[in-house]
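Hello, quick one for you while I still have it in my head. A protein chain has come my way and I'm curious about its shape. Can you walk me through what the tokens say about the fold? No rush at all, and the record is pasted right below.
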Amino acid sequence: MIAPPPLVAVQDLVKHFAGERGWFGLGQPRAVVRAVDGVSFEIPPAQTLGLVGESGSGKTTTGRAILRLVEPDRGRVTVDGLDVLTLGPRELRALRRRMQIVFQDPYGSLNPRMTVRQMLAEPLAIHRIATGPDAERRIAALLEEVGLDPGFGRSYPHELSGGQRQRVGIARALSVEPQFLVLDEPVSALDVSVQAQVLNLLAELQQRRRLTYLFIAHDLAVVKHIADEVAVMYLGKIVERAPALALYAAPRHPYTTSLLSAVPVPDPTAQRNRIVLSGDVPSPMHPPPGCPFHPRCPHPKKNDRCRTEPPALRAVAPGQLAACHFAEEPL
């Protein structure tokens, strides 16, 4: 059976931010911040790629660069065969109907001066999808689809709970009938019980609408329940990528192993081999030479090669890639 072509393909995506100058803007610029430094992956139609890592690893910048909410410095991004980075303003605006984002903060991403109905009507009008009674019917249907009563259309964001606000954010993204959604930590600001409800909603919407997700998160336990494949980022680079089942069963990069060891287990009697990393995350302005993880790596065979030679992201098992010189050897 021939696999379908990917809906989203990212190749060697790079985004660096210029460092600040000295006092009063004088002096030489500081070293650039390597927020995203050569990221590549593909997402098949109607599947979910989980992009995980610590704060500052470059996850959110990757998602925004794909959508051109920040302009990448280099790379190639295609969505359904269209090269996103070469499109002009008119073509990009048309493509935005097919790719949307759900932000992390369900309050900060909503306009406090607009009602829910007004926020959902705005994209319908901008993209000339519906106005008048047709727009009202679509808005009511959208609210019901995300689990809200149509009466919430008269509410302002401050009158809603965090979970209700995030449902409104999801409804707004769905209003233009996209194919691809960037979900930027969509449940990290919610209570645990509400997180489960929103994750179930996203799974149902994906199945019903055949949506493709880039699910950005720092919590591997959350990603496990929704992702088909997982990519792990560290200092702007992907250090491991694998099908979700394979990665959780047998991680090949020491960083992934340490992240998984920190996932809470709801069993107080369970024996855990907790891996505590030493030191702090290096600055993306001054990444260490060689393997970027080597200053914190707990691998017993870490040596001078790790300190001088950057490891390539390579196949270490069927469908599993890892950027580690000792990926085939247990930690």
The first helix runs from residue 59 to 67. The longest strand covers residues 33-43.
